[in-house]
Amino acid sequence: MSGVADLPDLETRDRPSDAPSIDLDALYRESGIGGMLAGMDRDLVGLRPVKTRIREIAALLLVERARRSIGLRAEPPSLHMCFTGNPGTGKTSVARRMAGLLHGLGYIRRDHVVGVTRDDLVGQYIGHTAPKTKEVLKRAMGGVLFIDEAYYLYRPENERDYGLEAIEILLQVMEDNRDDLVVILAGYRDRMEVFFRSNPGMASRIAHHVDFPDYEAEELLEIARLMTAGMQYRLAPEAERAMADYILRRMAQPRFANARSIRNALDRARLRQANRLFEARGSAIAAADLLTIAEEDIRQSRVFTQ
Amino acid sequence: MRLTQGQFSFLPDLTDEEITRQVQYALDQGWAVAVEFTDDPHPRNSYWTMWGNPMFDLRDAKGVMMEIDACRVAHPEQYVKVLAFDSSQGFETVRMSFLINRPAEEPGFELLRSEGPGRRIGYTVRSYATGRPAGQRYGGETRHGP
After folding, report:
1. Torsion B8-B14-B17-B19 (CA) sign
2. Chain B interface, best mutation among A139, A177, A181, by max B CB count within 10 A
3. How far apart are CA A166 and CA A129, in angstroms?
4. What gap in Å lies between CA A51 and CA A47, rounded to an integer?
5. Cβ distance B101 to B79 under 8 Å?
6. pLDDT per residue over A110-155, tens digit each?
7. Three-state DSSP class for residue A306
8. What are phi and psi of A177, to 5 degrees?
9. Which of A120, A265, B14, B32 has a CA that sits 20 to 30 A from residue B23's CA?
């Protein structure tokens, strides 16, 4: 009811005298997010829910900007985020992109990410934690503070742990300096849930919980392709098939870490390729040989023999 | 008497927004910004007390503004200045320095004359404020560091 009653009031108070039309498309183009979102689609394989959320945030910020341009009230939204997911699902990569995106949208002033872990925030003796945490926060001001494995901040098994002090300072800054700093927490899902359960203040100050799903086998193959291209290598067609086999076998094994496992596999394949070329150093090597990772470089992996 | 030391001292006192922009300029040049304070306004007093360490790795002025605010709250009745240190070779010196806080009342300086041999006169200045011990000069207590 109150909403209806408020409406006429709102109309007279907040609406500017003439009602200009807003060209959202022009705002979109000049902010350069189009390019950034396209770059994200190109460089990050899969991660559909993540991309959807980022698009939503981009749309929200764009609309906020449009509202402000015609004099409507536009509270800066809270953009603290929590990225949860298994190892190697791209949490850090997305966080690094986030700074560029939010900067392009004019939400943060600088395009920088300060990545920290527990060691950078929590001190070793009484009175050490607060200056240390403040130092990090000062450094991150104007940009994104990325706290990897944030659940280590809170150690319930040790009640005299200084982590809580860091959390308290963090909470206060997240509240008071909302337009100066975006905090992104990252970590494994189950542990993050425990962390939030024991720190309800932290959970309530984080507006966006983004879950990073595990990659499918085809997505991992695509990632492998992107990675080899990024390292200026090429997978021979048979090597690509070997890679697909490798991925299926590796996924079934313990300690599988998504894209990180793929990167490690490629690093080892490079090692074997270099060794193979070195063994054959008597004959001349073509430029293509230096570029190409052959099937045998991948098939020799321990994964195929186990 | 209004103290005029450092940059901008003949202008009206800088607003927070203006300070932010000056600090951001210094950071953009890659200079380290420091905050210092004193209650001895003599122009030759170059040893002001440091408010924490110089800030070497900041990129945004907000971090400096937090320290500035903290220092001003702790020493509302003292002189506080911001300086920017350029560490690049060939400079290695302070490139910017300006006052951001001053006591409400500034009593000014006294000109002292002392007569020497042959009726030679030596001149010096003395701040009226420094007649009292450090910490009691402008009312208010002195606290060191953040």
Report:
1. positive
2. A139
3. 6
4. 6
5. yes
6. 889 999 999 999 999 999 999 999 999 999 999 999 999 999 998 8
7. coil
8. -110, 45
9. A120
